[in-house]
Amino acid sequence: MIQQLSPLSVALEADAVLAQVDFAQNPYLQALTGGGLTLEEFQATQAQFFFAVEFFSRPMAALVGRIPDPVQRLDILRNLIEEHGEFQQGDFHVSTFKAFLESIGVDPAQLPALDLWPELRAFNSVLLSSCVHDELEVGVACMGIIEQAFATVSDSIAKGVVARGWVNSGELTHYQLHSEIDARHAEEFYRVVEPSWEDPTRRYYVRQGLELGAYVFDRLYRDLLRGAGRHVRG
């Protein structure tokens, strides 16, 4: 079940959008929890997901530069700083994700040699385009709903890898953290576009961003599962 946020108008709309997408039924998560995804396939898809983790702060940084109100800018700037571990390199989100990869048997030193799957390039390109070239509300809402969805996805993956015996619960990193903090991150994005939601001339762009973010994030996991079949099973 998607984590519910506080009753801001944008958050309520985001809840409705995510209820329609129903991430619990995403084939990737179903394959993980149901045994249809092998450890080798999971390793390959998570190694690719690293490139999404590594990239995510870049469109976020672009949004910071586009927000004219310095007070509104602070919410996303705070999020951006947290992505960078509050300036502690060992706590960077890329660092905690590398630790997770190690826990499932992936050597992070091999990541630079990996070919980027088109599934990841497509996802990253959509985020950058929406945050740089689209209406500001589209980019902010898109990133916010991905944060909200990732809180729930993280919880599912964390439980899945422990249940499959791939990671000891006491050694779980990254996903456990994000299952706890990303709902708050989503609220920080939604606060920025709440005034636009109350403006009939701008509400459309907020809704577009929410729907876009939910769509591309759901699509990413579906495509990763297909990519596992192409790149791992041959």
Task: Write down the Rg.
Answer: 17 Å
**CATH top level assignment:** Mainly Alpha
> Into how many domains do the coordinates divide?
1
Q: Distance N terminus to C terminus?
A: 33 Å
Secondary structure category: mainly alpha
- Percent of residues in beta strands: under 5%
Mean pLDDT: 87
Number of helices: 9
- Topology, number of strands: 0
Order of SSEs, N→C?
Answer: HHHHHHHHH
Question: What is the overall silhouette?
Answer: globular
Task: Work out the helicity level.
Answer: over 70%
CATH topology: Heme Oxygenase, Chain A
The CATH architecture assignment turns out to be: Up-down Bundle
Question: What would CATH call the homologous superfamily?
Answer: Heme oxygenase-like
The biggest beta sheet reads:
none
Give start-end ranges of low-pLDDT stretches. Answer: none
